Amino acid sequence: MLTLSCLQPSKTRAAIPHELHAISHCFRRPSLSLSIYSTRNQSNWRRSLCIRAIDAAQPYDYETQIYERFEQSIKLRIAIVGFGNFGQFLAKTLVQQGHTVLVHSRSNYSDIAIELGVSFYFDPHDLCEEHPEVILLCTSILSTESVLKSLPLQRLKRSTLFVDVLSVKEMPRNLFLQILPPEFDILCTHPMFGPESGKNGWGGLPFVYDKVRIGNEESRVHRCNSFLNIFAQEGCRLVEMSCAEHDRHAAGTQFITHFIGRTLGKIDLDFTPINTKGYETLLNLRDNTCGDSFELFYGLFIYNKNALEQLERLDMAFESVKMQLFGRLHDILRKQMFENDEDSEAPQSNNGAVDESPQSQ
pTM of the prediction? Predict the structure, then answer.
């Protein structure tokens, strides 16, 4: 608060010291003191304007306003469509970062939504009428097309950003381009982690994205970058990659991983008293992959055109290793068999020695 001293004659008030007064402890600046001297009608009057104090906390100071505007500019209104395990997993972080989260799902997750601090909508029309800035599809691969076609797109703003988090990328990219109006923005992403692998934080985990269609307006570019910043802020390693390139890599890194894990799940592998680190790694792989739904595994196969090629290569690799094993075994058995034949053909004496004397006529 600013206070101005009264304009009084110097006779009736104590002289103001010439030292500078502190304005506020938080500014760490020299104080400001202003003295005005005037001589009028041969009388020496001392007039002074002093700043006695200033509030330390000013709710409307310029720096606070700028900071609040910046915070508001990077916070998004995000609608999650598909509020299963992965949707709930993402919602926790979105809420922690201060974003407004709306959710919709075919199943009733209203109780979980209340616990997480998000708004649940049974009807997709009600969700879209809230005009979210981002529609985040967290559906299964197999249900993506039907869910996308069920959304009342006419109730959304024309420049809404659509984002998917599927494990395959060319399929949702093509669906978005076919179904969404051209005014809508499209960002295809794949957080290459889940509730299990990301339970202790997302630091260093890869996040793949492809800006399929983002408008040139500054606000739309800023919105897309703000969404990507959600994962950058958590320490993810952001990798920009085309959807086609992603699927080529994922057929080897993800589909093969799931295939091996589910194959291990078909045989009885248990913990033993003499587990090795490698064996425990296999058990963890089995548990992680078999913990996911079969629909995910099937989606990785049917909606990634590179998966069949990887499966054929894996099959040939199995046969090659088996042939190598059986080929070595065949050589050993063959050698043993012929050695035994040679020993049986050699004539033996009574004492077991080979009889090399000529036969009597």
Answer: 0.71
pLDDT by residue for the chain (361 residues), tens only, comes to 444 444 444 444 444 444 444 444 444 444 444 444 444 554 454 555 565 555 555 555 666 565 555 555 579 999 999 999 999 999 999 999 999 999 999 999 999 999 999 999 999 999 999 999 999 999 999 999 999 999 999 999 999 999 999 999 999 999 999 999 999 999 999 999 999 889 999 999 999 999 999 999 999 999 999 999 999 999 999 999 999 999 999 999 999 999 999 999 999 899 999 999 999 999 999 998 998 889 999 999 999 999 999 999 999 999 999 999 888 887 787 778 777 666 666 565 555 555 555 554 4
3-state secondary structure string, the chain?
CCCCCCCCCCCCCCCCCCCCCCCCCCCCCCCCEEEEEEEECCEEEEEEEECCCCCCCCCCCHHHHHHHHHHHHHCCEEEEECCCHHHHHHHHHHHHCCCEEEEECCCCCHHHHHHHCCEEECCHHHHHHCCCCEEEECCCCCCHHHHHHHCCHHHCCCCCEEEECCCCCHHHHHHHHHHCCCCCEEEEEEECCCCCCCCCCCCCCEEEEEEEECCCCHHHHHHHHHHHHHHHHCCCEEEECCHHHHHHHHHHHHHHHHHHHHHHHCCCCCCCCCCCHHHHHHHHHHHHHHCCCHHHHHHHHHCCCCHHHHHHHHHHHHHHHHHHHHHHHHHHHHHHHHHHHHHHHCCECCCCCECCCCCCC
